[in-house]
Amino acid sequence: MSNPSIDKLIEGILKECTPTSEEEINLHAMANKVKNKLESCVSEYKLGSKIKEIVFGGSFAKGTWLKNEADIDIFIKFKNEVDYGHFEDYGKLIGMQALKEYSPYLRYADHPYVEAYVDGVKFNIVPCFDVSFGDWKSAADRSPFHTSYVISNLNQEKKNQVRVLKKFLKSLKIYGAEISIEGFSGYVCEVLILKFGSFLSTIHFFSTYCNDNSVIIITKPDHEQEKHKRIFDSFLVILDPIDENRNLGSAISYRSVATLIQSSRKFLVNPGNNYFREEPISRPDNDLKYLLSPFILVIEFKYSDRPSDVIWGQLKKMTRSICKFVESYGFRILKYQCNVHEKEKVCVIALLYESLTISKLSFKIGPEIFRLHDVEKFIEINDRSPLKWLDNDSRTRCLLFREFTNAKDYLEFVLTNKPDLIGIPRGLKNDFFRSFKIYTLDQNPSLDEHIKNTVSELLYTDGRVF
């Protein structure tokens, strides 16, 4: 498996992503300063009886962070007897008050936590319960156990391999568990290195990955794969070594897994530094943009302030609903791209259609003639059809006339007159209907920068993957 050119490349990348001694010293000093602020806040609000301890977690505690890219997680471990409502309230109170000089704000996973930037470093202050192993009460309760497990099993050489893997995934924009990315988390990277031993072995595994029979298990023999594959109906199954009832792969999108598979194949054939560089999405060349502009429909709207994960979740759900609804009418969407531009507070959806116009004629195939009740129902539902017949396969058929043949006209009509037909998340409705615009690229040649960025992503081909 050893390849001198790849080994030399990885050695160089490792030097780039390993923190210096000075960075480690500075980070530990900063982390302890924030931890002391949290402990002082606990004393000030007389919450000491509610809390077991405050501990570091995440890549900082495990020693797997990338050079100049550390995020520091600090977990406030509440005693078991604290009820869930107070658990959330106390967690928010401590984080917001202790870091008030750093403009803290709330983020949301399964429960709220506090985030703030201290001297340019992101801190996450996360409440969890001090539980016995396996007796999870909140989603964050496993995290301290994750930290202990990784520290106990990951030596320095493997920590370095985790860093190289993170760098590879980050360059491909598939690193991070945030809903905007739906990629590989830092903990998943650590689990993969614990399983395969090195970055290169991990890449080799994914270059031949087949989801029909692959389950990534650390704590049990591989012959138990089939049993776990039946339990988790997922494109990628990675068992959490702390909780084998939990599939770490379920939060990773099909697209992210597929990107890793294909880029692993390409990297092994033609390795290069470009697989470890975050390349900006290039603008499509004028010929491609000219050819495809008549097939692209853009929807944009302004949204009111809310946490990043919330707006991304709402936008992705809405985009899927729009695509499903439009295609049920007869249009075909080849690809879509949605983006949240947080600075401008604008959401953008770009849809690449096979064609923005379709035939006036719509054709429906009904049940076989032997299915009496189904045939009667089909005839009743389509009573407005001017032409019905039986074909040589004994199935009923009918012809209908579409009211709309243009995708933009159809979407505008439905969103204006029958908005409940499309599954727009409740939390987005007011923002969306107050400000939405729909247009084709050739109708709006002077695009704002955030629209250009979304269209560029829609029309981007990553040469490292294809």
What's the number of helices? 16
Given helix and strand content, the structural type is: alpha+beta
The CATH superfamily of the largest domain is known as: Poly(A) polymerase predicted RNA binding domain
What is the fold named in CATH at topology level of the largest domain? Alpha-Beta Plaits
Cα-atom radius of gyration: 26 Å
Layout: helices, strands, pairs:
Layout: H1 4-17, H2 21-44, E1 51-57, H3 58-62, E2 71-78, H4 84-98, E3 105-108, E4 112-118, E5 121-129, H5 143-153, H6 156-171, H7 186-196, H8 199-207, E6 215-216, H9 225-231, E7 237-240, E8 243-247, H10 254-269, H11 286-292, E9 296-302, H12 308-329, E10 333-341, E11 346-353, E12 361-368, H13 372-381, E13 387-390, E14 395-401, H14 407-417, H15 426-435, E15 437-440, H16 449-458
Parallel strand pairs: 2-5, 6-7
Antiparallel strand pairs: 1-2, 3-4, 4-5, 7-8, 9-11, 9-15, 10-11, 12-14, 13-14
Helix pairs in contact: 1-6, 2-4, 6-7, 7-8, 8-10
